[in-house]
Amino acid sequence: MTSSSSASGGKRRFARIDRLPPYVFNITAELKLAARRRGEDIIDMSMGNPDGATPAHIVAKLNEVAQRPDTHGYSASKGIPRLRRAISHWYQRRYGVAIDPDLVTIGSKEGLAHLMLATLDRGDTVLVPDPSYPIHIYGAVIAGADIRAIPVSSEVDFFAELEKTIRGSYPKPKMMVFGFPSNPTAQCVELSFFERVVALAKKHDILVVHDLAYADIVYDGYVAPSIMQVPGAKDVAVEFFTLSKSYNMAGWRVGFMIGNADLVAALARIKSYHDYGSFTPLQVAAIAALEGDQQCVKDIAASYQRRRDVLYKGLTEAGWAVDCPKASMYIWARIPEPYRELGSLEFARQLLDKAKVCVSPGIGFGDHGDGHVRFALIENESRIRQAVRGIKAMFKADGVLKA
Question: How far is residue 22's CA from residue 79's CA, in Å, rounded to a whole number?
Answer without folding.
Answer: 34
